[in-house]
């Protein structure tokens, strides 16, 4: 989240202000903030100042030595305290890990039924949080064997939600049945968790069946949260009619949609470029006195118009939302940067960057990825590299997206040696790479007609456990074709067709 050190009412005017001189985003700036300049700091020294230090009296010298000794003693004490604290922390961690290891060993008929509740519950919580569903179910099985165990609906609900996130709806249903068998009270929360598990996996028929079951159960009536979950799942698979039917059903049953419900519709319609439907939902939301737009409403609307290139409409919407008292956050500025960058409106993009710096909005990995990619696509390698160095100096770890932007820019500029530098970064880090990165690398080498390096990318993918896809081989075929190596291009195309015919994932190019 952004850290804004200025009062809310001190923000400059909104985007579409008629006076460009008072408008932070639309004023025509030729120079960006010094933070984004590639300049080395200058240093200066004063001989007169040095002279004053040289002319100190013996008494002043003794005082300085005494102060220095006191300071050194304090630093030594702090260092000792840090070491003691570190040793204690390590000891606690080792004891915890050793105790939790018991959980994994104590299986079978002779297992312990007197494990400490805190140890078992902590182990279960950690696995649920990390979405390690198989391990979590094993720990839960051990938990149920303890002498102190009592069935608790909340624990079951947490596990069912976790299984839904892990796309394990059948396992979630098994737990739901066990919950009933253990005599736990079934509530609308447990039904909603199960409905969420099915809807997350795209099993909408099952989810609707559970919704109908809830409607017929007096004690488990669906609420706005239940409907919002199912609406979101419908919209994710572009089942807009079903989502609208659910919204109508809510109104019929007297359940008022909340801000999250409306935001889900606005975001989905915006991504599908269904602007008329999006504006209709927004109007409906504004007419609801008990449901006000928030920053997520603003961000979804700005993203919809910005990604479709409708910058003027985006700016007008920004002005209206600010007029309604909704203040931007870091995601808002990321959307503006991305929209201006893709539209090659670099002056406005630089103005947003300066605004963020002026009002102390902390940049995230997403912010850096957007601006690095924008300047890379513009061929401004100097600014791109400066931003990348700034990103690393702030200890923000580059992602696969960052590296793709660098490789793509260097490939377009024909800088093969710079790509080698990116690969050195990869070799000295634990950045998780995917097929998309290697496809970018393949494309960059192909553009520069570095065919030997291009073919080596397949070996790199094999070492990293990444499987080439159709894009990988089509990129190779296109590079060979553009480079006048028609025979190589036909060979790869034939291998792709053979692989598709035999349902193999990867043609053998060795």
From TrEMBL:
<dbReference type="InterPro" id="IPR002885">
    <property type="entry name" value="PPR_rpt"/>
</dbReference>
<protein>
    <recommendedName>
        <fullName>Pentatricopeptide repeat-containing protein</fullName>
    </recommendedName>
</protein>
<feature type="compositionally biased region" description="Low complexity">
    <location>
        <begin position="39"/>
        <end position="48"/>
    </location>
</feature>
<feature type="compositionally biased region" description="Basic and acidic residues">
    <location>
        <begin position="52"/>
        <end position="63"/>
    </location>
</feature>
<feature type="region of interest" description="Disordered">
    <location>
        <begin position="1"/>
        <end position="63"/>
    </location>
</feature>
<comment type="similarity">
    <text>Belongs to the PPR family. P subfamily.</text>
</comment>
<dbReference type="InterPro" id="IPR044179">
    <property type="entry name" value="PPR5-like"/>
</dbReference>
<feature type="repeat" description="PPR">
    <location>
        <begin position="223"/>
        <end position="257"/>
    </location>
</feature>
<dbReference type="Pfam" id="PF13041">
    <property type="entry name" value="PPR_2"/>
</dbReference>
<keyword id="KW-0677">Repeat</keyword>
<feature type="repeat" description="PPR">
    <location>
        <begin position="258"/>
        <end position="293"/>
    </location>
</feature>
<feature type="compositionally biased region" description="Low complexity">
    <location>
        <begin position="12"/>
        <end position="23"/>
    </location>
</feature>
<feature type="compositionally biased region" description="Polar residues">
    <location>
        <begin position="1"/>
        <end position="11"/>
    </location>
</feature>
<dbReference type="InterPro" id="IPR011990">
    <property type="entry name" value="TPR-like_helical_dom_sf"/>
</dbReference>
<feature type="repeat" description="PPR">
    <location>
        <begin position="364"/>
        <end position="398"/>
    </location>
</feature>
<feature type="repeat" description="PPR">
    <location>
        <begin position="187"/>
        <end position="217"/>
    </location>
</feature>
<feature type="repeat" description="PPR">
    <location>
        <begin position="434"/>
        <end position="468"/>
    </location>
</feature>
<feature type="repeat" description="PPR">
    <location>
        <begin position="152"/>
        <end position="186"/>
    </location>
</feature>
<dbReference type="Pfam" id="PF13812">
    <property type="entry name" value="PPR_3"/>
</dbReference>
<feature type="repeat" description="PPR">
    <location>
        <begin position="294"/>
        <end position="328"/>
    </location>
</feature>
<dbReference type="Pfam" id="PF01535">
    <property type="entry name" value="PPR"/>
</dbReference>
